[in-house]
Amino acid sequence: MKQTLWIHPGIQRTATTSIQEFFFENFQVLQSRGILYPFKSRRHFTFMNRLLDGKLDVDAAARDLIRRANEKPDPIHTIVLSDESVSLRRTRDLARLARLRDHFDVKIMVLLRRQDLWLESWYFQNVKWQWNPALSHCTLDEFLAQRHSFHWLHYDKYIKRFEKLFGTENVEVAVFERDQMPGGPVQSFCRQIGLLNLEGLIEPKHTNASLSPAMSELIRQLPVDEGLGDETRHILTKVIQTVDNTLPEALSGGGKLILPHDTRREIMNEYAHGNQTLAQQRFGRDELFHDPLPNETTPIAKLALPEDGVTLMQHFFVPILSDLIRSGAIQRPGKKG
Fold first, then answer.
1. Residue % of the chain over a pLDDT of 90
2. Which CA distances in Å does 28 have to 42, 244, 331?
3. How far apart are CA 45 and CA 36, in angstroms?
4. For a FRET experiment, which of 75, 242, 288, 303 has its CA 20 to 30 Å from that of 91?
5. Phi, psi of 77 (to 5 degrees)
6. pTM of the predicted structure, to 2 decimals
7. Rounded to whole angstroms, how far apart are CA atoms 221 and 236?
8. Interval 279-321: pLDDT, tens
9. What is the crossing angle of helices 230-245 and 115-129, to 10°?
10. Closest C-alpha among 22, 19, 15, 191 to residue 117
11. How far apart are CA 213 and CA 75, in angstroms?
12. DSSP class per residue in 32-89
C-alpha cells in the first residue's frame, strides 16, 4: 500500500509560515503518529524547486522520501511537503510533481484567501522582504498595475490545473476565512490530512506578520535589497518589525486595509465569475467567500510617513538605529568584532 504524500503549495499569505512552523516544531511527535515532515526544514523550498526545475530526478526523489520514512522507528503512513513557491509555477512545471503518483497516493491541499485581501498582504510582504526588485519599491498603484501577472489569483483556473494533474478527488480546497476554518488554518490543515488529535503538540505563534502602512512606506524607500547580505537583511527586518510593534496607533497608518473602496470592488468584480464557478463546483453554492467587503465608512490606512521630521526621527529612525547597535549589526566606534 502506497504512503500518502500531501503537497501544500500555498498560496502565500494563507498562514503558510505558521503551518510550516507547526510541522517543523512537532517533527518528532508527529513521527510517532505516523506523519513525516522531512529534511528537518521549516519549508521545502530547495527540494521542491529542484524537482520543479528538473534538476532532481522525480523517481530518485521519491525513493529518497520512502527510504527516510521507512527508516523511522514508527510506521509512517503520511508525508507532508510544504512550500508556497510552488503556487507561482505554471502547469508545465507542476506536471513533474504528478509523476510522484507512481510512488505515492498524492494529495494536494490549497488554501484560498479573498483576492483583494491577498493583494494587500502581498504588497506589504514584497515591500518588507524585497526579494523581487520589480515589486519591492512600488507604490500601491504601481503594484496593482502588475496584478495580472499573479496568475494564481484566478482560483478556478488554478485549482483546475491541479485537478487535471492529480485528479479532482485528490485536491482539497479550504477557504481562508475565520468561519470556514474552525480553530484556525493550522487546525484546519491538520484535519484535512487526518491529524485529529493535537494533544501534546506545540501550537505555533502567528508569524511573518505584515508591517504597518507607515513602516511599510519607510522600508519601501530604503535600498534593503542592494548589497546587504542575507544575515544583515534578516537582522534589519527583524529590528524594523520590533520597532513597528511599538509604534503608537496614531503613527502606524491605521490598520492593514489600504485599497480604496472603488478599487477593491473593481478587483473583486474581475474574479467574481471564477470564484462563483469554483464555489459551485466545490461547495455547491454561489459565493466562495463569506466575509463581506468593507463598507464605505470603513477607514482606509494611509501609506505615508509623518511629515514632521522630529516625529519621524523619534519614532522611526532613532529606535531602528538603536536596536541595530544593540544587536551588533552596527558597532560603536572603537569596538572590535
1. 87
2. 14, 35, 40
3. 17
4. 288
5. -105, -15
6. 0.93
7. 14
8. 999 999 999 999 999 999 999 999 999 999 999 999 999 999 9
9. 120
10. 15
11. 48
12. HTTEE-GGG-SS-HHHHHHHHTT-S-HHHHHHHHHHHHHTSSSPP-EEEEE-GGGGG-
Are 276 and 228 spatial neighbours (Cβ–Cβ below 8 Å)? no
- All 3 cell numbers of residue 275? 470564484
- Give the tens place of pLDDT for each residue, 207-247: 778 999 999 999 999 998 888 888 888 899 999 999 999 99
Q: Contact at 8 Å (CB) between 22 and 124? A: no
Per-residue pLDDT of 74-104, as tens digits, reads 999 999 999 999 999 999 999 999 999 999 9
**CB atoms inside a 10 Å sphere around CB 202:** 12
Q: Report the SS3 class of residue 95.
A: helix
- Tally of CB atoms within 10 A around 199: 5
CA 273 to chain CA centroid, nearest Å: 25
CA 1 to chain centre: 33
Reading the block at residue 315, the C-alpha cell is 519614532
In the numeric block, the cell 508591517 is attached to: 211
Instruction: Determine if the peptide bond prior to 11 is cis (ω within 30°).
Output: yes
